[in-house]
Amino acid sequence: LSGFLGTYVGVFIANTLEIQVIPTFIHELLPISFAIGILTYIVGALLYRFVKMRNQKDLIDNEYIESRLRSLETQLNPHFLFNALNSIAELIHHDPEKAEMAILKVSSFLRNTMKETALLTLKDEVKNVKDYVELENIRFSGKIKLHLDTMVPDWKIPKFSLQLLVENALKHGFLSSSESLNIWISFDTQNKKIVIKNDGESMRSKKFGIGLNNLKQRIELLCHGKIIVENTKEVTFNIILGDCSEDINR
């Protein structure tokens, strides 16, 4: 209709203003207007289909990325929880008060794991790490020493990012026969970087396993950031954060 009326009215206005028009338009105005109307409809229909297909692709991509994030979160290693529960079971007979405190720590930790959010504030993540280390220290008799910067920046970070790296240090770098394992977590506010270092066993390879690949993908998807191994002897990881947001289509 817009193509038909546009042509018809356009020729009429041109005649009124004495603007020269191709003679064919004047003699065959009705069929030409009708043809232009059909062409306008075809172009509009094609544009509509194109936009609709693009929107459908964006929706599918969005749902795929969200499902991928949910899948990555469900892969988080739960073994520390089983170890903590076994330790608590032993404590119940020897130190009931300590066992009760440990159960409250587990409860607090699980409450954070069940939050339906892919990002946590860095302060909440640090609290998570402290609870985790306290739970593991039940099993390792206080041999794990956590050293944290006193000033925690107001950042957001993918859930369990720090906890996973601390867990990785215990799993691959700490021997139960060792006197202690020191873990340092510091924050570089200028470069929006988190440095996690431990004095455990050296890394044999910079190749990431399932857990670290999980973390790498979540940091890329949610923060447009990255995780790198800075040092394999004095095991040091750097998490470099971009603009973290749960809006993955931003």
Task: List the topology elements.
Layout: H1 2-16, H2 23-27, H3 29-74, H4 79-94, H5 96-113, E1 119-121, H6 122-140, E2 144-148, E3 156-158, H7 161-173, E4 181-188, E5 193-198, H8 210-223, E6 226-231, E7 236-240
Parallel strand pairs: 2-4
Antiparallel strand pairs: 1-3, 4-5, 5-7, 6-7
Brief overview:
With 250 residues, this protein is an alpha+beta fold. The protein has helices at residues 2-16, 23-27, 29-74, 79-94, 96-113, 122-140, 161-173, 210-223, and strands spanning 119-121, 144-148, 156-158, 181-188, 193-198, 226-231, 236-240.
Looking at the structure, what is the overall shape?
elongated
* Helical content (DSSP H or I, runs of 4+): 55-70%
- Please report the distance between the alpha carbons of the first and last residues: 38 Å
Q: Which segments are poorly predicted (pLDDT under 50) over 5 or more consecutive residues?
A: none
Give the mean pLDDT.
82
Alpha carbon gyration radius:
31 Å
Number of helices, counting only DSSP H or I runs of 4 residues or more: 8
Main sheet record: 5 strands, mixed
What does this structure look like?
The chain is 58% helix and 14% strand. With 250 residues, the protein is an alpha+beta fold. A 5-stranded mixed sheet has the order 2-4-5-7-6. The model has no long low-confidence stretch (mean pLDDT 82). The chain is built from 8 helices and 7 strands; from the N terminus they run αααααβαββαββαββ. It is elongated and about 105 Å long. A hairpin with a 4-residue loop joins strand 6 (226-231) and strand 7 (236-240).
